[in-house]
């Protein structure tokens, strides 16, 4: 069976390096399913889960956004923040989501609405990733 090499790199460290039979991620224009021999592609990566499948084994990671580069035999994911999904802190994600919602509803002129909206999107994506893992266990 054909495999592709996969690297998931955050701004601090390489989170994952290995082989896969399939990679699933959310690109800036929608869901991506990447198999060995995929057409070359470079696109933005939306905050959310990245699933790396190797036959029947699957690992899930959370990426805060970034870029995904696909070559026929290599997939590289570059993200500001990337972590193994099973290490995500649900309580912290809920707290971050609530804080971002509060900031967005605050009528104070000192609020950076774009930043608050981005924080809300990332917190919601973290919670979505946690829920997907629970559903698959």
Topology:
Layout: E1 4-9, E2 14-20, E3 22-27, E4 30-34, E5 41-45, E6 48-54, E7 57-63, E8 66-71, E9 74-78, E10 82-84, H1 90-105, H2 113-136
Parallel strand pairs: 1-9
Antiparallel strand pairs: 1-2, 3-4, 3-6, 5-8, 6-7, 7-10, 8-9
Helix pairs in contact: 1-2
Walkthrough of the structure:
With 137 residues, the protein is of the alpha+beta class. It folds into two domains: 4-85, ATP Synthase, domain 1 (Sandwich); 89-136, Single alpha-helices involved in coiled-coils or other helix-helix interfaces (Up-down Bundle). The chain is 29% helix and 42% strand. The protein contains two helices and ten strands; from the N terminus they run ββββββββββαα. It has helices at residues 90-105, 113-136, and strands at 4-9, 14-20, 22-27, 30-34, 41-45, 48-54, 57-63, 66-71, 74-78, 82-84. The radius of gyration is 16 Å and the shape is elongated. Belongs to the ATPase epsilon chain family. Residues 87-131 form the ATP synthase epsilon subunit C-terminal domain.
CATH architecture of the largest domain: Sandwich
Helix-strand pattern? EEEEEEEEEEHH
**What's the CATH first level of the largest domain?**
Mainly Beta
Oligomerization state of this entry? Answer: single chain
Q: Number of domains in the coordinates?
A: 2
Number of strands: 10
> Helical region count?
2
Task: Give the neighbour order of strands across the main sheet.
Answer: 2-1-9-8-5
| Rg computed from alpha carbons, rounded to a whole number of angstroms | 16 Å
Unreliable stretches (pLDDT < 50, length at least 5) are none
- Based on CA inertia axes, which overall geometry fits? elongated
The fold-level CATH name of the largest domain is ATP Synthase, domain 1
Largest sheet: 5 strands, mixed
């Amino acid at each position: 069976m054909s495999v592709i090499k996969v690297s998931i790199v955050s701004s601090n460290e390489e989170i994952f390096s290995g082989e896969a039979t399939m990679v699933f991620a959310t690109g800036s224009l929608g869901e991506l399913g990447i198999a060995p021999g995929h057409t070359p592609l470079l696109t933005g990566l939306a905050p959310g889960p990245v699933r790396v499948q190797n036959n029947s084994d699957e690992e899930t990671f959370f990426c805060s956004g970034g870029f995904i580069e696909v070559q026929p035999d290599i997939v590289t994911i570059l993200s500001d923040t990337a972590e193994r999904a099973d290490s995500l802190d649900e309580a912290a994600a809920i707290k971050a989501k609530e804080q971002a919602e509060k900031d967005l509803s605050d009528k104070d002129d000192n609020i950076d609405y774009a930043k608050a909206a981005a924080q809300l999107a990332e917190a919601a994506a973290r919670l979505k990733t946690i829920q997907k893992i629970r559903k698959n266990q």
